[in-house]
Amino acid sequence: MTLEELVPCDSSKMQAVSEAVERVLVAAQRQDRLTVGVYESAKLMNVDPDSVVLCVLATDEEDEGDIALQIHFTLIQAFCCDNDIHILRVSGMQRLATILGEPEPGAEPRDLHCLLVTNPHKDAWKSQGLAEVASYCAESRDRNQWVPYVCLQER
């Protein structure tokens, strides 16, 4: 049974959170507050974990068998939990690539499996979308779902 089978992608709450995630990622990219890639994210969390406000782990069904990626995800999830960083798993790699404008013409495609949203000054960046995502993460933790799931849907 896959995560998508356990958590329905079509609920209105899921749709609202999905849209909030998209807004946060687009705004973070525009403001140069987005770190892209598993390796790049691990480096940032090692140097400045206090600046990270959201970690997004993205996979699709074809990634489920990638043991190395799953090990990276497990380590990143543990680090995020230890450092009180909101963490979210998403599916819909194609949608994620679309909203982030990937790949840029003439550029090598980036590894979109791990995205970090940073906020160097805790009170400097107020975002309604970030507040919605943080609230969803907190509600999920209250239901003992430590790594909540969101389905990014093609439009």
Describe the structure.
By secondary structure, this protein is an alpha/beta fold. It contains 6 helices and 5 strands. Strands 1-4-2-3-5 form a 5-stranded mixed sheet, with helices on both faces. The two termini are 26 Å apart. The model is unreliable at 1-5 (pLDDT under 50).
- Quick one: biggest sheet? 5 strands, mixed
Structural class based on helices, strands and sheet pairing: alpha/beta
The count of β-strands is: 5
Multimeric status of the protein = single chain
Measured as a percent range, the helix fraction is 40-55%
Mean pLDDT: 86
How many helical elements? 6
Rounded Rg: 15 Å
The ordered string of helix (H) and strand (E) elements is HHEHEHEHEHE
| Low-pLDDT regions | 1-5
Cα distance spanning the termini: 26 Å
Strand % is 15-25%
Name the overall outline.
globular
* Biggest sheet strand line-up: 1-4-2-3-5
Features:
155 residues; alpha/beta; 5-stranded mixed β-sheet; 6 helices; disordered N terminus
Blueprint (SSEs and pairs):
Blueprint: H1 3-6, H2 12-30, E1 34-36, H3 38-47, E2 52-58, H4 67-82, E3 86-91, H5 93-99, E4 114-118, H6 128-142, E5 149-151
Helix pairs in contact: 2-6
What is this structure, in a nutshell?
With 155 residues, this protein is α/β, with parallel strands linked by helices.
